[in-house]
Automatic annotation (TrEMBL):
GO molecular function: heme binding; metal ion binding; oxygen binding; oxygen carrier activity
UniProt signal peptide: none
Keywords in alphabetical order: Heme, Iron, Metal-binding, Oxygen transport, Transport
Pfam families in alphabetical order: Globin
Coiled-coil intervals, chain numbering: none
Family: Belongs to the globin family.
Organism: Cotesia congregata
Name of the protein in question: Similar to SYMA: Hemoglobin A (Casuarina glauca)
Boundaries of every Globin domain copy: 26-179
PANTHER family documented for this protein: BLR2807 PROTEIN (PTHR46458), GEO09476P1 (PTHR46458:SF1)
Cross-referenced PROSITE patterns: GLOBIN
Length: 185
């Protein structure tokens, strides 16, 4: 399994490997540096707020998805904005994403893949209402929109391409974990 940017590079047709100390990822040092900077300053520093936005956007667009969360399904979205249990769930989600992004930024493809596949496995096995691929795919647009909103002027075309592809690959690996688990049962 390739890293986030192996996917980015192949899907965007970029080569840009000049001065690259990160041959496994396919990114230049400059690209990694700007991704790390935006992750730390814009996303990770606001992780709960961002995840609350993502989840509420998801619930607004797909009511059936909210039904999969027994603890939150009967709470109006406006109240979820201040609900500490919901915030705790969002913090757990972003902890997984943060760990995966940090593994990627450290060029640890195996850890990146393991973190996300385990997440998919847990969602397939342990959820009261098992989450399937389509539910994870629904995260793409709310994540991109929230990241874009929080990166503000730092969301350039290049940054948008890098983070859009990164988000797509994160979701793709989680789905692989879900599908592998469901195929075992």
């Amino acid at each position: 399994m390739g890293s986030i940017v192996s996917y980015v590079v192949s899907s965007e047709g970029q080569t840009g490997l000049e001065n690259d100390d990160h041959k496994n990822s396919g990114l230049t040092q400059r690209q990694k540096k700007i991704m790390k900077k935006t992750w730390e300053s814009c996303i990770n520093s606001n992780s709960i707020v961002i995840c609350v936005e993502i989840m509420l956007s998801l619930f607004d667009k797909y009511e059936d998805t909210k039904e999969m969360f027994p603890d939150f399904k009967d709470i109006p979205n406006e109240e979820l904005k201040k609900n500490k249990k919901f915030h705790a769930h969002c913090q757990m989600i972003m902890s997984v994403v943060n760990n995966a992004v940090n593994a990627f930024l450290s060029d640890d493809d195996e850890l990146f893949t393991a973190i996300l596949k385990i997440t998919g496995e847990r969602h397939a096995k342990h959820a009261k209402n098992p989450i399937i691929a389509k539910h994870m795919e629904r995260l793409r647009d709310p994540m991109i929109e929230s990241f874009k909103r929080h990166m503000k002027s730092q969301w350039t075309n290049e940054m948008g391409n890098l983070w859009t592809s990164a988000i797509e690959n994160i979701i793709k690996v989680i789905i692989q974990g879900i599908q592998e688990t469901l195929s075992e049962n």
